[in-house]
Amino acid sequence: MVGGDGAAAPGGYRAGMPEPVMSFDGFDLVPITEADLPRIVAWRSRPEVHEWYGGRPVTEDEIRRRHLESGEPVARCIVRLHGRPVGHLQFYEYLDEWKGAIGLGPSDTGVWGLDVYLGDPALHGRGIGTRLVRGVAERLAADHGAERVVIDPHVENLAAVQCYERAGFRRVRLLPAYERVRGAWRDAWLMEFGDDAAT
Ligand SMILES: CC(C)(COP(=O)(O)OP(=O)(O)OC[C@H]1O[C@@H](n2cnc3c(N)ncnc32)[C@H](O)[C@@H]1OP(=O)(O)O)[C@@H](O)C(=O)NCCC(=O)NCCS
Fold it and tell me: What is the domain range of residue 97?
């Protein structure tokens, strides 16, 4: 049936939901729409999530502006695992003006980044993030022409650093005072995917 009232279909799919931009291993990455905003706000209200992603809860208006209206060349997606929405992942090719923050310059080409969270803390620590991040990095290299795939967890975010290492990322550079969270500057690791990432 085409159209419909937007009610949930088996597997959690809604009529009118966009096609996934990436699918593998039970995961579908589906572009965020207006209908996802309440779920995102609920996920980011969880301290276990906003402690490490954004630093504070967010409103629907903020998410609408940043995720739907910013016009930035960023693929912002809901992650579905076997149809169930489990989190958010965004990926992007670094624009020249973004590269300075991670210690790179315009001559560093083909650099892609990703940011991720799983919205329900009950899902943390079960290996989902490892499979997800590895699969996305592999597909950015295979299908999007990424020469380097990087990620930038806070140094104290031990679960994220461990997850990304398990997924095939290596720490390549300390990024001092990288992000300000509730008034305090936090260092981050620049991590790069692949066996030949510099150590
Ligand atoms: C970071 C995140 C995406 C990782 O996904 P995940 O499914 O929880 O990660 P995994 O279960 O695949 O791997 C986590 C690893 O960290 C380990 N770990 C968990 N807590 C840890 C801690 N406090 N110290 C050290 N290691 C820890 C786990 O044991 C696991 O390692 P193992 O597989 O060797 O046992 C998820 O936890 C999350 O969304 N966290 C909140 C938001 C966030 O931090 N986003 C990332 C911002 S960079």
Answer: 18-193
